[in-house]
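Researcher: Re-running this chain for the archive, since the previous output was lost when a drive failed. Same request as before.
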Amino acid sequence: MHGLKTIMKKELADHLSSYRFLILFALIAMVSLVTAYMAGVNLSKELEGIAKPRHVFLMLFTSAGIRISLTQFVALFGPLVGLVLGFDSINRERNEGTLVQLLSQPIYRDAVINGKFLAGVAVIAVMMVSIVLMITGLGLLIVGVVPGLEELGRVALYLVISIIYVAFWLGVAMLFSILFRSMATSALAALAVWLFFSFFVPLGASAVANVLAPSTAEAAALVRRAQLERALSLISPMELYSHGTVAVIDPLRRTTRSLVQVGVLEQLSLTRFSGPLPLDQSLLVVLPYIITLVALTCVCFGVSYTAFMRQEIRSL
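Model: Regenerated structure tokens:
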């Protein structure tokens, strides 16, 4: 595609040299390192004097350091990276008049939107890989356990899912940057969507589940309410991401459900096969959520692509 590499290089240079990106990266890296450090210190104290269990390295990502774990921190605040990178990607150039000058060059229009999105994904990948590598080195230093190949594979898969998750929010921010001429309006709209799906959807799912399936002392009623609340909460991309990474980063999890009703025979079976799942089996458990997250990202970018291609740029 003509001009795609040029747009990508230009956007990468703008992102990596901007104070906004440097401040955001420093803030997220600092919180991630502090969380991983506290989790590592707690793990070292708990495992002192005993044989270290398998997959102890992955506990750096799932153990709570400062109230929340690293995976919970990425699920909640990772979208801010995508929103910051994309909320002014189009309307800023439109307001400054550089978008008209850019399209007057021998560059296809779709190269502009594709280059901006791919550059944002590349920046997200650099940020996530850098943070995970720093946490890995910190874990080796504090816990003193060298991760195995399967653990590295789980971390790599977690990285891929996290990049897709943040890329979805990048697509949301770019969509609002295309639809709204004002940068403040696009930023507020993107933040409103993030607040709605991250906070109000889980609360709303719990409230609706309480109304439609009131809690009683019966186990069947509790399971029915939990299933309804879980189904409603999956509207949120944050819940899809959490369910998509729970079994990947925690090999002892055999299901994404927090409440499972089993009988006596099932309990005996689970105790017999209570070891960690292989990586391929964990992937099968979370595959529907990963596919849904990828589909949402593609749909969001497709809508942004269509809206940008149909806009009359030169008349603005």
